[in-house]
Amino acid sequence: MKTSEYLQETSLKGRSKQCLTVVIPTLNEIEYLPHLLDALDAQTRLPDEIIVADAGSTDGTVEIARARGVRIVTGGLPAVGRNAGARAAEGDLLLFLDADVVPLHDFIARSLEEFERKEYDVTTCLIAALDENPMDKIISAGTNLYFWVIQPVSPHAPGFCILSRRITHEKMGGFDESLTLSEDIDYARRAKRHGKFGILTSTRIPVSMRRVGKEGLVGLGLKYAWCEMYALVGKPVRVAPFEYEFGTFGPPHAFTSRALINKSAIHRRWKKLRYRFEDLAAKYMSN
To answer: CA torsion, points 110, 116, 120, 125, in degrees to nearest 10?
Structure first.
């Protein structure tokens, strides 16, 4: 991997400019991580350090990251992985990215320029569709509009792209590892209390819509709506009444369709519920 030699040649105390560490939490991301690493390699402003916080991948994710010269640390679910990467980082700035984003060649340069000019402590940016699917573009536009509208009431920062000052991240205590979902929204809300939070307007982050492709727009939308209800009343999500998968995504072409309802996903959930009811009924009958 191409990274800035500045971090390697100077100590923390001897630096005259901000150094950037990219932290990527992973779990079975071999189909997506190489594209992100290629994109980071092509940046006009290279990151000074790249850390992959892996949650036990079995598909070769760690091996390919190590072969590219990336630092590997033990991770976990997103909040755990991001915090682990941040603790191991040497940079003054932390850029948290998920494996399924592909930043444009000037993303880091534009982000850092606006970040410093506006004196932010924690930021995110608007999103863009990674694919040319018209539905993806509609979803992206709707998400961006919602982010802008909701900011005064409930600051939002999608976990797949958050830029933080290390000192602010540590002051906040990092991401709340006790949360099962919406840890990124909780992070943004606390960031606003500890410093200056905002949305970058000079660039956007292209992200895959693989969850929409796998779960269907309605199914995923209902999950997010449930999380949003909690967010709007300031309640953290420690237990969710539904399954939210990590590390189960195949190659990008496997999720190019955009059905409103994923019938196979609904069928799988129904089977799980049916088995639970049958188990409960069997226990009741045996008593």
So the answer is: 0
Domain definitions of the chain by residue range? 6-211
Tell me the β-bridge partners of 49: 21
146 pLDDT higher than 50: yes
Helix axes 78-88, 183-194, angle to 10 degrees: 50
pLDDT (0 to 100) of residue 195:
96
Q: Which two tokens stand for residue 10?
A: 């100077």
- Who wins on pLDDT, 250 or 229? 229
State the architecture of 6-211 in CATH terms. Answer: Alpha-Beta Complex (3.90)
Q: Structure tokens of 57? A: 């991948």
| CA end-to-end distance (rounded Å), the chain | 62
CA 276 – CA 151 distance, rounded (Å):
40
Check: CB of residue 53 under 8 Å from CB of residue 82.
Answer: yes
> What pLDDT is attached to residue 61?
97
Residue 14 pLDDT > 60: no
